[in-house]
Task: structure prediction
Amino acid sequence: MTTEAGSETEVKEKAEESAAEPDQSEKATEDSQEVANAEVEEKERAKVKEKEGKEGKGISRYLPTWLKKQKSQSQTSPTKEDPPTEEPVSEVTQEEEGPTPEVNGHAEEVEEKEEVKSEQVKEKEAETHSNASADTEPAKEEKVEESAEKSPEETKETTEGEGAEEETKEKEGAVEAEGEAGEGQTSIFQSPLRLVRKNKMKLVVCHVTLLDGTDFTCEVEKRAKGQYLFFKVCEHLNLLEKDYFGLTYKDNHDQKCWLDPTKEIKRQIRSNNWQFAFNVKFYPPDPSLLTEDITRYLLCLQLREDVASGRLPCSFVTHALLGSYTLQAEIGDYEPDQPRPLDFISQLTFAPNQNKEMEEKILELYKSHRGMTPAQADTQFLESAKKLSMYGVDLHHAKDSEGVDIMLGVCANGLLVYKDRLRINRFAWPKILKISYKRNNFYIKIRPGETEQFESTVGFKLENHRAAKRLWKVCVENHSFFRLNAPEPPTKARFLTLGSKFRYSGRTQAQTRMASSLIDRPAPSFERTSSKRISRSLDGAPMISITEAGRESAENGREPHLELHSDSKVTVVDVSPGDAEAMPSQHSPGSSELGPPQSSLRVHGDNIYVRHSNLMLEDHDKTQEEVLKHQASISQLKRSFMEAPPSSPPQPNQWEKRLTSSPATIRLQQQQVTTEVEIEETVVIQEISRAPKPGLVTVAASTPAAPSAEQEMREQEVEVQEEAVVVEEAKPRKEESISSESESEEEAEYHPYLPVSISHTQIPEEKEEEEEQEKQEEDKMPELQVLASDASSLPAEVIQPAEETRREEVESKKEDDTETEKTTNAEEEKEVERETEESTDDPMVTPDEAPNGLTLPEEGVTVMDARAEEEEEPKMNGEPSLTEAEPLPQVICCSEPPVVKTEMVTISDTFAAQKTEIATKEVPIVHTETKTITYEAAQLDGNGDGEPGVLMTAQTITSESLCTTTTTHITKTLKGGLSETRIEKRIVITGDCDIDHDQALAQAIKEAKEQHPDMSVTRVVVHKETELAEED
Amino acid sequence: MAGLMAGFGHYTHAVVRGIPVSLAKEALRSSQTEVDLAKAVKEQEAYVEVLRTRLGLEVVELPADESLPDCVFVEDAAVVCGDTALITRPGAESRRGETEAMKGALKDLNLNIVEMTDENATLDGGDVLFTGREFFVGLSKRTNQRGAEILADAFKDYAVSTVPVLEGLHLKSFCSMGGPGLIVIGSSEPAQKALKIMQQMSDHRYDKLTVPDDLAANCIYMNLPSKGHVLLHCTAEEFPESAKVFEKLKDHMLIPTSNLEKVKVDGALTCCSVLINKKANI
Result:
């Protein structure tokens, strides 16, 4: 894949590697097209930057370079997974850059609005925001004037400097605010909010219940994203270490849900109840490592509530102790002359079953804390609270295999299973290979223990699919936050991906610690609000509202400014690398982010196509038309592939029925091959909904046959600026579709660990031929050794490059002489293309028949995703490769023509902790769905059947979770006096990690070409097998 | 302060009980062996002497009750952690009466008494391993899920995980704490399996000290103000190999304690006392 030319490479990089570069390129494009805006923008930035250098109070300068890098990546990278690193600031920048087109479309409105508010805003800002912003204003204006002259290159520079960029961003926000007020042009800098708003900005009043019980009210635009509101709240609280916190809302079913910062609030709450609560989302295992007292204080407030409500159970003594620290922190030293202290204490709620005895104990202990400062008392409080076994454990109701009610607890260390109050099992994050959900089932795949050979999957039944998804999300977030150094890179938008692409979008704990260690503001003074708590119970909640005149206006239009510049501290916050919340759009593919995020998303999705097509095109000079055609065919093929699931419902439905009807929830299952199949299905569906959308935007793309995603993508890149309006229009649709999709997701998966590959090599034979498999060493030899000329029945070993990371089967047959040379043959590429095109019309996506398709002995490259499942075994007979159910490393697989699949039933030990016996009903059954896609070259030679072949090689490389099997089969035939050698290569890739099928295919083809430069690829068959469901 | 998990192994008091004559014939046992009553009494006296004289604990000695042949094994009658005492409901019906005297003694020590009244619940203290950070409760012939739940309710601060006890009488028949974060474990397969489960279930890391003999894995760890780490463990006479392992613990004050006779009726070292930490405050 690495050899692709120009555009492809670029795309690739974007998707995978350097975020910065793509950014550049994008920017460049933008600039060229949308000169005016971009330039202005750039200039401003540059200026801002300069300013920053001089005056900058932001934290950004303190940030380690890696943090900065991440930020920049997240901004630019098409993949949305980097979110955590992004900051609010970065977001702004992104949006500014990417969405510029949008801005244009709305410019007028925006301007108007701005004008109206500009005065107010200015005043406000002057007051509220740091001097930095004020300073910036004049400078900026000057710049604007000059800006016309600036060249795009300059812009690039600006963008490139990562550190600078960040700084710039900070200021930008400020600049933006100012600029907008003064000039219409400035509107380029838009806040996320603004991007969202259309003609009318409807304001909605949000009520946020704070941890001290007070109400915080503020107005947001109706289409504001979660993070906007969250930042408002944090600003109000003067909170910098905000990554531990989040906003919750109650869904229609009265379930508490976390507000996704990257998505529009409106689309999440799904009701008109704009009521939220500010809560601790991630309980730091060691609160003493928090940097600021105010953060600890807020954590204390949360814990007090948790304790008082019984959510965090503790003993009598602990209740008393915690209560005493609370008193010390909130009202200071015990006053001996205070009348009737017990009456006072009894007004406060410390425990669910608070009684006189406890209050006396609290008082007694309270007296002993004399001299302790509030901060010390809070610290002591946290030191005690953090040791409680349920500290930071987020409980979810579920049922086990027997339908017994259990609780699943998600925490920093992993997943805990409780039955009543007893812990009956525990899965530490390192033990978990995959987390997924499907409908109301929640699954975790467990890494095999020392003595176990197989991975096992444990399933739980949640009340409904929403609960399952909620749990899954919490798991994903907790794992990311506590276990990763940086948020997981975005799921690639390959067309065979899973349902929800949700990923944690914030900073990880590691990042937030790093960031907060750089906080250098004087400890903010804050009032401990015991009085409020009291009054809450007695008088109702005091209200705090920010909606004074000046503020209001500022908020509405300019939230970004407020956040970015208002106070020095605020600025700091934004700058801090970890502000993941800000990173809005990038992460969740499904998120309805506007402008840049979307475009990036789309780009990302399209990248695959582009890459793919490029691969095909590489080295070969076709006319543009052909290329397009080719692309179209590929895209169509893909589309049909993607659509396959819906059209071939029989299997899935069947299984679904079974699934739903099956009472048992917990399954101990041995995973022979891979999981994820199910998920992929879902994904496919989603993709469908999404793919068409881009088409709307681009003219070329619209026809089903012609439009290739790649084209679209390219067009978009090129035309981003020009077609801004169009894009914008399209966006709403997209959003809708996306959002609906996200809602409809019934399943998704998440791999706590990056996939390691396990591969088996098998040498499948064609029907009558002998097959031998040999284990080969992991050495990779790029070339086939041996044989073409010998048709001898003796199997020759060929060492092939192992494709460790893919799990697909690629069968490639090449016709011509087998020689080992490494040159890329353009013709081959062509052929492949043609093949693809042809196949496009009639992609074979039959789930059941797939195996047969594979068996086709003819030439071809088969890419398949195979999953062996017991149920499906009969079908699989045709495919030797599927036979291998064992993920065992270095397993030698011998497949005889009629393959006998051995079902390995291993009962995992996961639940064994509590079960001494495992019922037979728990024997896992994995259902498989197969799909096959065949790419066939214009038939050079269609009759390869039955010809004896020579088994060339079999190689199995096994690593942890992926299994790649490469089988090479060489057939020599005489046709018309010509000796023809056909090489059939079958590559089976199995694993639980996401596989980029396109990439795998491309890789396979490429390798085939490299190995046999003088041969042509005549057929590619992609066979994908998906696990549908497991049943007891 | 009543800080959680503070001072694991700190004890000030011990409750013990005399050996009834009926123990020799009527005490429950898993193997049919003759108990030399006199030797058993001597053993017990030596045991109490170590606690009282050598270690300076305040020993509350309950009188033996002839109708309760197993009454010397007080550990099964109560679980004390912090200032809370859970009066158990022993799995063996013949032992249910043992809790009465225990309850009285613990009340006298001003502990918060929690009683296990649920008739579906059974719990022997011998199945309860408190590590200082959490509880493991063995689900055995004597202890059931319900009993474990009640224990979890009584000690809400701590995680309570259940561990199947496939062999042996109690969970602590093959393991015990040998120090903070140190689990002494027998080398038998069931013991090792149980340890694995405990390790899997715990958020904390434990070191393990494996001894060749399961029964030798039952020892008594204390952390006393004037003595530091103290370990009462098996004698070389009983388990020579295991005793050697203990002797490698350099930081501990090692006190080999004979248990030859009581072991015949499945009594281990921990079985014969309930250790309590009564601090001046709280």
Observations:
- Chain A has a mean pLDDT of 56.
